[in-house]
Specification:
This protein is an alpha/beta fold and about 500 residues long. It has 2 domains: about 65-195 and about 375-420, D-Maltodextrin-Binding Protein, domain 2; about 200-370 and about 435-490, D-Maltodextrin-Binding Protein, domain 2 (3-Layer(aba) Sandwich), CATH 3.40.190.10. It has 21 helices and 13 strands. It has helices at about 1-20, 30-35, 40-45, 90-105, 120-130, 145-150, 170-180, 195, 205-210, 220, 230-235, 260-270, 290-305, 320-325, 340-345, 390-405, 410-415, 425-435, 440-445, 455-460, 465-490; strands spanning about 65-75, 110-115, 140, 200-205, 255-260, 275-280, 285, 310-315, 335-340, 355, 370, 380, 435-440. It has a 5-stranded mixed beta sheet. A 4-stranded mixed beta sheet has the order 2-1-3-12. It has a two-stranded antiparallel ribbon with strand order 6-7. α4 (about 90-105) crosses α16, α11 runs parallel beside α13 and α12 (about 260-270) crosses α20 (about 455-460). The radius of gyration is 26 Å and the shape is globular. The two termini are about 45 Å apart.
C-alpha cells in the first residue's frame, strides 16, 4: 500500500510538470563553444567529492520477504514510533512513514504494527514463549519488562550477529547499564523516537531573560559551565508576588522555575550522573555508591526547588498536569523543567520565544551533561523462542540506522512541532540532550527504595537520607541479589 501511494505521488508530480508546459531545450551549440576545455590532467588527479557513507548504508540490500510483526506499548502514543499509515503533513508521522518505506524497499518486507497496554505486551511475549508460537518478531514493552529478562523470556541480543550494539544509534548508556553477565536482553536507540523524546530538558523564556538582563545560558553549556549552582543563582532571587497577597500562587505570580514531580523529581538529580548501582572491582553490578556525594547532590536539588518562587507540582491527574504546564507559555516562569515530548504539546502556541537547554551538571568537573530518561519509555526485546533472530536483527539495524540518518536530525522540528522553523542554538542543545541520556540501573529495575528516593526527598524537602535508606536497604539488597541470581541461571 505504501509503495502504491509513493508511486501515485510521483505520477502526480510528473503530471504537474507537464501541465506547466515543456521547458525549452538547452542551447547545446552555445554550451559546446563557450564551455572551457577541461584540463585532463587536473580531472585525472583531483578526486571526486563524495559524501561520507551513511549509517543506513551499513545494512546490505536484500530480499528477506514477508511481514515483520511488531507488538508495541500504546501508552503516550508510543506506537507512533512505527505506525504511520500515510503522509499527512505531521513532521514525526511523515518522517516515520518515509523511514519505514526505505527499510521495506531495501529489505523486501512489509512492516506490521499492533499495540496494546504495556502489561499485555509482556503477557503476549510470555504466552508466545510458553506456547512456542511465532506471532510477533519484535516487542516494545516497558520498564517492568526487564523482569522478563531474568525470568528467561527474552532473547540475548548479544547473540545476534546482525546487530551492532556498539554503534551510536543504539543507546550506549542503556547498553552499559542493562548489560549483566555480558548479556543484554532489551535495548533502546534511535529506532524508537519515544526514547529520544522522553528525556528531561529545561526551557527558558527569552523575553523574561532579556527583561532581567540575564544572558541566555547557551554559551555556559558549550563551555561546560552550566551547573546546578549556575541555575540556582539565576532562580534564587527571581520571581514576584504580582497580586500582592503575600503568597506565591501559581495562577497569577511570576515564578522562577516550574516542574512536574514525577519528572522533575528525578531530572536534576540524575543530571549529575549519580547512580545507586555501579560496577565493582570484578566488573559486576552491585548496590555501591558514595553516600557523601549523594547528600551533597540532594542538598543542591532541594535548595533549587525550595527557593521562594520555585514551583514543583506534587499533584496528579490531567487537570493538575495542564495547570502546571500552562504557567510557562503564559509568560510567568523563567524556567520550565519538562521532557522533550511535552514541549510541542504545551508550548507550540507560546507567544514569547523560548530556548531549550540540557539539565545542568553537578559542577564543572563533571565530564559531560546527563539527561534523565523516564522509565516509561518503550523497551525493545525479542521472545526467547525467536523464529529467526538474525533476520529480526537485520531489520532492527535497518530501522535504527535509517532513523539515525533521517529522523533524529529533524529532532528540533519533532520536539517543537514547528515544521521548517529552526532555532540553531536549541537544535544544538537537543543534540546534547538526546546523546547523553543517563540510566541508573537501580532506577530502571525499580529496586526497592533506591528507585524512587530522589523524588521522595524533593517531595518531603528533607535531605536526611540516612534514615530513609536504613528503612529499605536490607530489602533492596535481597531484591537485587534475587535479580542477579536470575541472570546467573541464564549464563
Amino acid at each position: 500500500m505504501k509503495r502504491i501511494l509513493a508511486l501515485l505521488c510521483a505520477i502526480l508530480m510528473l503530471a504537474s510538470a507537464v501541465a506547466c508546459g515543456t521547458a525549452e531545450p538547452a542551447d547545446t551549440t552555445t554550451a559546446a563553444t563557450t564551455a572551457p576545455a577541461e584540463d585532463a590532467t587536473t580531472a585525472a588527479t583531483t578526486p571526486a567529492e563524495t559524501e561520507p557513507p551513511k549509517a543506513f548504508d551499513t545494512v546490505a540490500e536484500q530480499n528477506l520477504g514477508g511481514d515483520f510483526q511488531i507488538l508495541y506499548a500504546q501508552a503516550d502514543n508510543c506506537y507512533e514510533d512505527f505506525h504511520a499509515e500515510t503522509l499527512n503533513g505531521d513532521v514525526k508521522n511523515d518522517l516515520i512513514y518515509e523511514r519505514n518505506l526505505m527499510v521495506e524497499e531495501k529489505l523486501g518486507i512489509d512492516i506490521q504494527i499492533s499495540w496494546m497496554d504495556y502489561k499485555d505486551v509482556d503477557s503476549k511475549c510470555m504466552l508466545q514463549v510458553q506456547s512456542g508460537s511465532d506471532d510477533y518478531d519484535l516487542f516494545g514493552g516497558h520498564r517492568i519488562s526487564l523482569a522478563l529478562s531474568y525470568q528467561g523470556m527474552h532473547y540475548n541480543l548479544k547473540d545476534i550477529s546482525t546487530l551492532d550494539l556498539t554503534q551510536e544509534w543504539w543507546d550506549q548508556g542503556y547498553v552499559d547499564a542493562i548489560t549483566i553477565n555480558d548479556s543484554l536482553y532489551t535495548v533502546i536507540g534511535d529506532i524508537g523516537v519515544s526514547t529520544l523524546l522522553f528525556v528531561s530538558s529545561l526551557t527558558f523564556n527569552k523575553k523574561l531573560m532579556d527583561e532581567a538582563n540575564i544572558a541566555y545560558p547557551y554559551d555556559l553549556v558549550r563551555e561546560g559551565k552550566w551547573t546546578m549552582d549556575a541555575l540556582y543563582n539565576m532562580t534564587v532571587d527571581y520571581g514576584a508576588d504580582l497580586n500582592g497577597d503575600g503568597q506565591v500562587k501559581r495562577e497569577d505570580d511570576l515564578l522562577s522555575i516550574i516542574g512536574w514531580s514525577s519528572e522533575s523529581g528525578y531530572s536534576n538529580f540524575y543530571s549529575t550522573g549519580f547512580a545507586f548501582i555501579n560496577r565493582d572491582a570484578s566488573g559486576d553490578y552491585a548496590i555501591n555508591y558514595d553516600a557523601e556525594r549523594l547528600n551533597s547532590i540532594l542538598e543542591k536539588v532541594v535548595a533549587l526547588w525550595t527557593t521562594d518562587y520555585a514551583y514543583n507540582n506534587m499533584g496528579s491527574g490531567t487537570a493538575e498536569h495542564e495547570i502546571t504546564y500552562g504557567i510557562f507559555p503564559a509568560g510567568r516562569a523563567l524556567f520550565s523543567d519538562i521532557v522533550l515530548s511535552k514541549i510541542g504539546t504545551f508550548y507550540s502556541d507560546m507567544e514569547d520565544d523560548y530556548g531549550i537547554l540540557p539539565l545542568p551538571k553537578y559542577d564543572e568537573s563533571q565530564e559531560s551533561y546527563k539527561s534523565y530518561l523516564g522509565f516509561t519509555i518503550p523497551i525493545l526485546y525479542l521472545p526467547n523462542n525467536a523464529a529467526d533472530a538474525e533476520r529480526t536483527g537485520t531489520i532492527m539495524e535497518a530501522l535504527c540506522t535509517a532513523s539515525y540518518d533521517n529522523v533524529t536530525p529533524q529532532m528540533y522540528e519533532i520536539v517543537t512541532k514547528l515544521k521548517n522553523a529552526r532555532d540553531e542554538d536549541s537544535s544544538e542543545m537537543i543534540e546534547i540532550i538526546i546523546r547523553n541520556k543517563f540510566i541508573d540501573t537501580a532506577h530502571f529495575f525499580d529496586v526497592e527504595g533506591y528507585g524512587t528516593l530522589p523524588r521522595n526527598v524533593i517531595n518531603t524537602k528533607s535531605t536526611n537520607t540516612a534514615s530513609m535508606i536504613k528503612a529499605f536497604e536490607r530489602i533492596a539488597a535481597k531484591e537485587w541479589d534475587k535479580i542477579i541470581a536470575g541472570f546467573d541461571k541464564l549464563s
